[in-house]
Amino acid sequence: MLFQTCLPFAQVELDLERHARILGAVEFELRPLRSGLNASVAPHLHRFWTPFPLRETSEGLPLGRLLAHARRRAGLTFREASAKSSLIARALQNPEYYCSAGALSDYESQGGAPRHAQKMLSLCALYSISPWEFVAASGLRLREAGTEAIPDGLAPWARSGSEPEPSEKVLAELPSFMGGTAAEYFKLRRISLRDLFAVGRSFRSLHPYLADTALLIVDRRKKQIISLSHAPLWAQPLYVLVRRNGSFLCAACVPEAGQSLILRPFSDGIDRPVRLRIPTEVEVIGRVVGILRKFLPDGISR
Fold first, then answer.
1. What's this model's pTM, rounded to 2 decimal places?
2. Over the stretch 71-112, which tens digit does the pLDDT of each residue have?
3. C-alpha distances in Å from residue 103, one per residue of 78, 110, 138
4. Beta partners for 29?
5. CA quadruple 213, 219, 225, 230: dihedral positive or negative?
6. What are 252-257's contacts with CB under 8 Å, separation 24+?
7. CATH fold group of domain 191-294
8. Neighbours of 139 (CB within 10 A)
9. Does domain 56-143 have CATH number 2.40.10?
């Protein structure tokens, strides 16, 4: 049974493998922080309902049948799927992500894989298909992958002329095109490393969203402090500030006359209000528009 402690979802008993499948554990959460958006429960999920058996799994299907099954599951026609692929191409500024309605029909009827990897990624996004499932349905034997060494001419250290050096643990690996997509997701023109602020393990916060946070995404254009009188404390806008001694703060603030700020308790481990003056004591870097939060503790695999 799934339990929801905040919103009034109906608690419905589900039989594992008959009514529900566990796909895996959520390792990270990429959450936008937009004040004023209230979560709600759809009417049909508020009422108690009788669970229905899961549909036939698509594992082991050839590519054409897999695409047809996934498209029907998504409730899309060829024209609707083609229109959505144009949104992907526009967001990524690459026309190769676009799939025409005729091409989508041919992929299902002929069972052939697209020639371009961009179209494969569009199909996976449109139909909610795992890329590994797509590649396996195309006839590639994944078990034989990774058995040969990378040729010296293709190795990164061969082009740079130096051997690879051991680096620190990677937090998370994202594809190269994720930058443009994430910028649109957080309503930013672009995202650079200057907009990302790592949160140390010693960071102490009572804020429900900042627990186990790994990264803060900051919009440097939004430096004007805003306090929402109608919003609860956890929904107040967060800002990243830097003090004159070089230390950083992340907190909700209340502006005062005379270029003063009052930092609210609760966000950055502050146990009482703190009054600071701009710019003599503190400088506003920008408003926090998103967070990358880790769910699984270290040492637990997915």
1. 0.63
2. 998 899 999 999 999 999 998 889 999 999 999 999 999 888
3. 9, 10, 16
4. 293
5. negative
6. 252/227, 253/225, 253/227, 254/225, 254/227, 255/225, 255/227
7. Umud Fragment, subunit A (2.10.109)
8. 11
9. no
